[in-house]
Records
---
Amino acid sequence: MRCLVVVACVAALASLVVAEPLVLATGGRTDGEIVLPESTSDTMREWTEFLSRTLHEMTGADFPIVAARAHAADKPSIRMAVPLSGKA
């Protein structure tokens, strides 16, 4: 009986861990954009452009880069962040 309870508990926990897949683009289109912090370094900007190009090569979709102030809150986004050290 204990074994059955343990199996049931593990199954219940496993169902909580399963998440929906993250879909970045479908059919060469995306609704998302890459959001840069207001104050960012040239290095961060270069890596963001690299990410945008790489995602385009992988999916065929254009991932626009926008400043945080221009990002619409209802749009999906990939948010670039400045490391805690403040250097990027």
---
Amino acid sequence: MVLSFRSHSVTGQKDYKDMRRFVANSIWLTVFFAAIMSITVCILCRSVLIAMKTPADILDLAYDYIFIIFAGIPITLAYNLLTGIIRSLWGFQIAADLSADGSSGKYRI
């Protein structure tokens, strides 16, 4: 999220080289953390369920359920990254359009 705010200020300065660099770094960091988090929690999933004393008759079903949720971590992180990038790029443009003439113009609610 910090990188999204940084790309927002770079966009406002019209510094597109730095903006591309921040977006690329955001993508790489998201891929890295998504891989580390997903692999770690998917490997430790059964151990955590056993440590929580999950009843044996539902252990396999609980494992299947929580494994699918943990495997979806990269999708959640990718969604958050994409919305942060869109918000930082287009949010600035909308704010600039609104402040250019002082009226809501084409963004009337």
---
Amino acid sequence: MMIWEYCSEDSNYENNYPAHLKTFHPNGQVKEESFSKNGKREGKYILYDERGRTLLKGNYLKDYEDGLWQYYSLKGNLEKEINFRKVATRVLIRNTTYRAILI
């Protein structure tokens, strides 16, 4: 079950101000945190697991992944970085970095 919460008091869709959006895990922990402007994802995006640990951090620009996206393990270690940049209407993936985690 996913619950959406519109949680920005200063947001106004008609005036094109960004809306701060959150989804929640069934246990009440935040699952996703993002922003939307003009009906498109815009700004920071964070994905969390059921315990509130960050799994993914990134940024959207006009509904496309933009800039550095970081992927984390359940132990909080940075596992992968992908740098996105938008060209015309396609997204190109550049500079992917994988990190080996020794346990």
---
Amino acid sequence: MPQLVASNSKEEKGITSSRSSKSPTPVLSSKEISPPSCEEMKAFYNSLAAISSKPAILALIDPYSDNYIPKPLNEGLPIVLTDLYKQEYLQLNYSELLVKSSELVINVSQDE
């Protein structure tokens, strides 16, 4: 009865490679990379803002984030809730915010 022998090498398994076994191994050099300066970051963000698509990262960066606030597509839609934002509301406490919110009137018709 023949014995089965496990083969470990690629040549024994019939696997060939188009690469020469004598090709040099690439050497990766490691060097320190300094973080980008503020001017470089601004230039990078400006170049992203100049392209035709809207890169999502700019939604997090002032002043580009203003372009990512949704706007109603036409007059038949209700106001966008982000239009209710006011910087002064950040200084109010909870009870003052409740008073301000009770003063707001938001009308939404059945068509909207």
